[in-house]
Design a protein that fits this description.
The chain is mainly α and 229 residues long. It has eleven helices and two strands. A two-stranded antiparallel ribbon has the order 1-2.
Length: 229
């Protein structure tokens, strides 16, 4: 896969990057491309191409890339450059270990829970259904990312939201390794809907327990797929 399309998409983030002109903004823009599935595992990220796409200096790009390497979203290969990471089974286990601690707690106890927060969850469910109707399975995967981001947003913590961005970036890289994209994502449309139904009914405890089961099942499914690679 070439970098033409992802870098074209990154160029749309140029205005926000220029407003702050910081490595953090560049890192956010690249990370979001990973979360949305436009940058895939193994894609090379040439420094000059990123400079041209985002309109920033090479030093700023280098700082941003180093940050993303530390976050395990990217990987640096000596004498070859920086590439989008390929998470292994140990990374999958650790990401889900964190998600099982964070997501159910945000659903059950989060201070930002309320009609607006639940509406964002419902919007992500509807987004996934709409993508499935057109067989847009990458769109379904993106909607699923938005669903889980909306769950964590119930925590009402900007710091937690930022950490979730890092986890979701790694998760999107994991999803790219699933050979049967539709078969993996389609069953979770109903489970997302069921969790949203519980939230709309005000049963946060039951919703949190369903999120916990959901994450455990997804982890097992992914690790089984990794074992067959």
């Amino acid at each position: 896969m070439t970098l033409v399309d992802p870098l074209s998409s990154l160029a749309r983030a140029r205005a926000s990057v220029l407003r702050s002109s910081t490595a953090e903004r560049v890192a956010d823009a690249v990370r979001e491309e990973v979360v949305e599935g436009r940058l895939r595992p193994g894609a090379r990220l040439p420094e000059q191409a990123l400079c041209d796409a985002l309109g920033v200096s090479r030093n700023t790009v280098r700082e941003a890339l180093s940050q993303l390497v530390n976050e395990r979203v990217l990987a640096r290969e000596p004498n070859r450059g920086v590439f989008v990471a390929r998470p292994d089974a140990a990374a999958v286990r650790d990401v889900y270990r964190v998600r099982r601690l964070v997501e159910p707690a945000a659903v059950r106890d989060g201070e930002a829970w309320g009609p607006a927060a639940v509406a964002r969850v419902r919007a992500a469910v509807d987004e996934g259904r709409a993508a499935a109707r057109t067989a847009n399975w990458d769109g379904v995967a993106s909607a699923n990312q938005h669903f889980h981001r909306a769950l964590v947003a119930m925590g009402g913590s900007p710091r937690l939201d930022q950490q979730m961005k890092l986890l979701l970036a790694e998760m999107r890289l994991v999803f790219h390794r699933m050979s049967e994209v539709r078969e993996f994502h389609e069953p979770y449309l109903d489970r997302n809907d069921a969790i949203c139904d519980l939230l709309e009914a005000g049963d946060r405890a039951a919703a949190a327990e369903e999120v916990r089961r959901y994450l455990s099942d997804a982890e097992s499914q992914i690790l089984d797929a990794y074992a067959r690679l």
